[in-house]
């Protein structure tokens, strides 16, 4: 019992430290960047006294530690500042943009895992054969083709030429603002609203960007699964399993595969976290109003509050997924318990 | 005749040509206990694994005859092999730390082995597993069923391995250095347990080891291997009459407490032994 409590205390401490580090980093991003937040707010041509007043209002005359303190207090109140570009509080911007990314990333990681894991296992089992080579080529293409090329080709072929895929964006114009905002995930919200036409429309809009993101993630997942499985298949317990007279299916999926669980979860968590950062290129090509676009546009306009807010969010995603992965390890491997 | 091996050869294709690791091994065994001894790399494990066709993919097996239980191992399809593995012959590996699946409970691993060949429900299989663990003299088998391999000692792990391999009631047990990873005190215990169960069930045993005296103590016959060949086959009682210089060398190398020698002799080897 005390052991559990100790572990919990250790966990809380490490999470606390990570979060503190994260907040320090986002704060520094706001200060260290060669961008004057005052000029960014009031504009290049503002008269001197306006600039001075804004500087005082923003608390930029105070010592840096005080500034940091104010920043933390603001964060604790859920205040990420305002975006100069959108004029909205950053927190409500993020509440709008992040679900779009979340929806895309979640679908992509599921598709990538469902295809990549079996493919990786298959490649490992057939190591050195033409099947292994073919899978390697497919993955190599996934690694090396630029995203925008694939995305453009996909739009050209399936939308422009064949007309079987919907165009860019998250939904058709007729469904715009028809679905009450609950989670921000259009597929989920339209199910909640019971509007199946809107659901299919949202799903159809996801197909292309999801496939493209999933392809890249799948290439990585396949490669890693193959490597882990090759290692597991060399294990002595695999010989034991075969010596027991088990079918090769059982040997592979019941004996070897569960032994790569922990490593696979790490790969999946990293892949998912990477996708949740927002895929700028894919989002841009498909006009997908996601976090990646929001972050990039803000950064290019020297709009630092959104940048800091989005960075903080991405950091939180990594911390959260790490915690989740740790919890899953315990389920998968008795030696970590 | 359970096992009939004539002129077994196992080779690997390497960059510089083929490397023959087993070169013409022959022996036969029925329901008796055969020991195979020999230095590291002499081809003992490969011989045993060839019999169950459990060799690495890049290994090539040839033989004038390789039969087990009347089945031609060289011609049998994978299905037939699966019927032999486990069901007709159990295979015990060296170190239970690696040979048991680390993420599966002990009970499940034993039960799986039973169920694979005997059928029945999961529950029946688990009951059978408890009974088997009891037979290999594990105390509190019900509790041990729920443990994972890393939670038990090496000796206990090897008992589990024995229980698992005896589950389908095979006719032959192949044990490849089953005690090399264990403490000396536990070694004798495990070997005695194995010998006891094999005798009680009227099974054949192939016991592979480095340790000539140990093997001759537990087996009826001993085959001495060197560099991929059987140098000499003797009945265990007649070790003293060994003719082959390599066997004699092995026996001479043993330190003795009652007649200590100032220096242990160096094992001599002779390329001429491989000519015949
Ligand atoms: N997959 C393989 N590829 C190439 N050579 C191999 C392979 N497996 C085994 N060998 C070689 O075959 C020879 C015999 O191996 P084997 O495992 O049968 O020896 P052993 O008598 O069991 O030795 P030990 O007492 O160390 O277990 C060794 O020289 C080994 O290097
Ligand atoms: Mg060996």
UniProtKB/TrEMBL annotation, chain A:
Q: Which UniProt keywords apply?
A: Cell membrane, Membrane, Transmembrane, Transmembrane helix, Transport
**Keyword Membrane carried by entry:** yes
Q: Which InterPro entries match?
A: BPD_transp_1_N, MetI-like, MetI-like_sf
> What domain of life?
Bacteria
Cellular compartment(s): Cell membrane
- Membrane topology of this protein: Multi-pass membrane protein
Q: Where are the transmembrane segments?
A: 7-29, 104-125, 137-162, 202-221, 252-275, 307-329
Checking SUPFAM superfamilies in the record gives: MetI-like
Keyword presence, Disulfide bond: no
**Residues in ABC transmembrane type-1 domain copies:** 98-329
Entry's family note: Belongs to the binding-protein-dependent transport system permease family.
Task: Output this protein's name.
Answer: ABC transporter permease
Per the UniProt record, the source organism is Microvirga terricola
TrEMBL record, chain B:
Q: Which Pfam families match?
A: ABC_tran
* Keyword Cell membrane in annotation: yes
In terms of SUPFAM superfamilies, this protein maps to: P-loop containing nucleoside triphosphate hydrolases (SSF52540)
GO MF terms on file?
Answer: ATP binding
Q: Which PROSITE patterns match?
A: ABC_TRANSPORTER_2
Lineage, top-rank taxon, reads Bacteria
Q: Which keywords label this protein?
A: ATP-binding, Cell membrane, Membrane, Nucleotide-binding, Transport
UniProt subcellular location? Cell inner membrane
Bilayer topology reads: Peripheral membrane protein
Q: Which InterPro entries match?
A: AAA+_ATPase, ABC_Ni/Peptide_Import, ABC_transporter-like_ATP-bd, P-loop_NTPase
Q: Which residues are in the ABC transporter domain?
A: 3-252
Query: What family classification does the UniProt entry report for this protein?
Result: Belongs to the ABC transporter superfamily.
In terms of PANTHER family, this protein maps to: DIPEPTIDE TRANSPORT ATP-BINDING PROTEIN DPPD (PTHR43297:SF2), OLIGOPEPTIDE TRANSPORT ATP-BINDING PROTEIN APPD (PTHR43297)
Designated name of the protein: ABC transporter ATP-binding protein
Species of origin: Microvirga terricola
């Amino acid at each position: 019992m005390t052991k559990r409590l100790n572990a919990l205390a250790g966990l809380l401490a490490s999470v606390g430290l990570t979060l503190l580090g994260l907040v320090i980093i986002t704060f520094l991003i706001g200060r260290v960047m060669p961008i004057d937040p005052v000029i960014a707010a009031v504009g290049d041509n503002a008269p001197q006294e306006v600039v001075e007043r804004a500087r005082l209002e923003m608390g930029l005359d105070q010592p840096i530690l005080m500034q940091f303190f104010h920043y933390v207090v603001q964060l604790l109140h859920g205040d990420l500042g305002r975006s100069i570009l959108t004029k909205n509080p950053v927190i409500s911007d993020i509440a709008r943009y992040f679900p779009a990314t979340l929806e895309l990333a979640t679908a992509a990681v599921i598709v990538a895992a469902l295809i990549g894991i079996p493919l990786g296992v298959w490649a490992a089992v057939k190591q050195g054969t033409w099947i292994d080579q073919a899978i390697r080529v497919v993955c190599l293409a996934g690694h090396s083709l630029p995203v925008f090329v694939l995305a453009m080709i996909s739009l050209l072929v399936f939308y422009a030429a064949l007309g079987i895929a919907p165009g860019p964006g998250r939904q058709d114009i007729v469904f715009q603002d028809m679905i009450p905002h609950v989670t921000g995930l259009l597929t989920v919200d339209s199910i909640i609203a019971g509007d199946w036409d809107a659901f299919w429309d949202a799903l159809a809009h996801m197909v292309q960007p999801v496939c493209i993101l999933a392809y890249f993630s799948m290439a990585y997942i396949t490669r890693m699964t193959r490597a882990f499985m090759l290692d597991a298949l060399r294990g002595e317990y695999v010989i034991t399993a075969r010596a027991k007279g088990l079918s090769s299916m059982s040997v592979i999926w019941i004996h070897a595969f569960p032994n790569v669980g922990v490593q696979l979860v790490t790969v999946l968590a990293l892949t998912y976290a990477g996708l949740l950062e927002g895929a700028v290129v894919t989002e841009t090509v498909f006009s997908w109003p996601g976090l990646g676009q929001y972050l990039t546009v803000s950064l290019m306009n020297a709009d630092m509050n959104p940048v800091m807010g989005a960075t903080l969010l991405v950091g939180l995603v990594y911390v959260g997924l790490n915690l989740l992965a740790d919890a899953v390890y315990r389920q998968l491997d008795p030696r970590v318990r | 005749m359970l096992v009939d091996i004539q002129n077994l050869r196992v080779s690997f294709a390497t960059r510089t040509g083929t490397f023959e690791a087993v070169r013409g091994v022959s022996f036969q065994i029925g329901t008796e206990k055969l020991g195979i001894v020999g230095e590291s790399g002499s081809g003992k494990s490969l011989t045993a694994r060839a019999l169950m066709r459990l060799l690495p993919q890049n290994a090539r097996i040839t033989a004038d005859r390789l039969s087990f239980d009347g089945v031609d191992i060289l011609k049998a399809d994978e299905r037939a092999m699966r019927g032999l593995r486990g069901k007709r012959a159990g295979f015990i590996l060296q170190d239970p730390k690696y040979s048991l699946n680390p993420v599966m409970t002990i009970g499940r691993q034993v039960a799986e082995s039973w169920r694979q060949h005997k059928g029945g429900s999961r529950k029946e299989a688990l009951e059978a597993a408890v009974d088997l663990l009891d037979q290999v003299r594990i105390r509190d088998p019900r509790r041990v069923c729920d443990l994972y391999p890393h939670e038990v000692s090496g000796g206990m792990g090897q008992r589990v391995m024995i229980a698992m391999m005896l589950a389908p009631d095979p006719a032959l047990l192949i044990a490849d250095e089953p005690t090399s990873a264990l403490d000396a005190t536990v070694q004798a215990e495990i070997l005695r347990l194995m010998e006891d169960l094999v005798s009680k069930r009227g099974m054949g045993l192939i016991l592979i080891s480095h340790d000539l005296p140990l093997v001759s103590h537990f087996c009826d016959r001993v085959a001495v291997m060197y560099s991929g060949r059987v140098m000499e086959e003797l009945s265990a009682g007649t070790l003293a009459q060994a003719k082959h210089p390599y066997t004699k060398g092995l026996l001479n190398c043993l330190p003795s407490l009652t007649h200590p020698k100032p220096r242990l002799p160096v094992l001599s080897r002779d390329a001429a032994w491989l000519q015949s």
